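Design request, tokens follow.
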């Protein structure tokens, strides 16, 4: 791919999504954009490039961003954050929110939904009695329209359900439909999916959360963008709440009301009460 074209696309994508492409990714970008170009009926990536350059077509630009996101995810990814939710965070929060009887959880950058559905499943499996008396909101967002559309269906193929999901849970919470598995309505209805760009949190997110999962997405951003997004997430975390990043990630900035707690095997950023 020509240097000029690579720079045009990477600058565009970083401006919109924060995803920063390092040198050496030319081949990956070219192959994904070529595939998109063909799907949209263009002859090749050059033709796509000329169209995007000549007019501001937001739908097309969003398709380009979508095609360049990495949507890798699986049920109970890393396992220990879900053990930590089960063993420490949920028991503590159910006690702390005894008066309000309301807990809000946000899976920010949820990809195709395995992360928020894992949280819903865990609540169903281990905290059933609270589900009757507490209002539990699981908000799940991603910039990728394609991923959110898939997440909303709650339908996964055999490979996807084989990744991270114990067979007992598969049998209990999913129904086989041909070669696919559909999550049951009780779990599906617990999660509210929406398209949301993490660069727009301060303008668009007006509610607060007790738990925020923001895993394996800040790794794609520049240091400056990481700090901005982390700060915006921190601002919508309730006092007494927890923000959890991917297992290999660390907070890019710290605040006076932030305490790093290690619960089980998970590093959690706790907002002091
Ligand atoms: C590698 S996946 C991680 C999914 C899930 N959190 C997990 O840990 O399994 C990263 C996700 O971040 C999303 N993403 C990238 N940039 C984003 C942005 N600016 N706003 C919201 N989501 C974004 C991608 O679309 C992708 O679905």
């Amino acid at each position: 791919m020509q240097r000029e074209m690579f720079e045009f696309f990477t600058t565009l994508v970083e401006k919109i999504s924060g995803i920063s492409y390092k040198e050496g990714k030319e081949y990956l970008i070219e192959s994904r954009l070529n595939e998109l170009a063909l799907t949209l009926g263009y002859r090749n990536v050059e033709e796509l490039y000329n169209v995007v350059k000549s007019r501001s077509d937001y739908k097309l630009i969003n398709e380009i961003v979508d095609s360049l996101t990495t949507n890798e995810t699986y049920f109970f990814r890393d396992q220990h954050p879900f053990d930590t939710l089960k063993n420490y965070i949920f028991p503590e929060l159910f006690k702390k929110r005894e008066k309000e009887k309301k807990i809000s959880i946000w899976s920010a950058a949820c990809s195709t939904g395995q992360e928020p559905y894992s949280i819903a499943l865990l609540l169903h499996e281990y905290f059933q009695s609270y589900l009757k008396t507490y209002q539990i909101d699981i908000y799940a967002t991603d910039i990728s329209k394609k991923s959110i559309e898939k997440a909303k269906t709650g339908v996964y193929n055999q490979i996807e359900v084989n990744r991270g999901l114990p067979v007992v849970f598969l049998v209990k919470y999913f129904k086989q439909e041909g070669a696919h598995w559909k999550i049951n309505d009780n779990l599906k209805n617990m999660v509210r999916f929406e398209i949301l760009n993490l660069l727009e949190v301060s303008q668009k997110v007006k509610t607060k959360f007790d738990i925020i999962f923001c895993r394996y997405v800040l790794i794609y951003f520049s240091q400056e963008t990481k700090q901005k997004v982390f700060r915006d997430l921190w601002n919508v975390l309730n006092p007494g709440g927890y923000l959890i990043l991917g297992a290999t990630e660390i907070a890019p900035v710290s605040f006076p009301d932030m305490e790093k707690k290690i619960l089980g095997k998970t590093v959690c950023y706790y907002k002091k009460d």
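Comment from the thread starter after seeing the answer: thanks! The CA atoms of residues 92 and 235 lie 21 Å apart.
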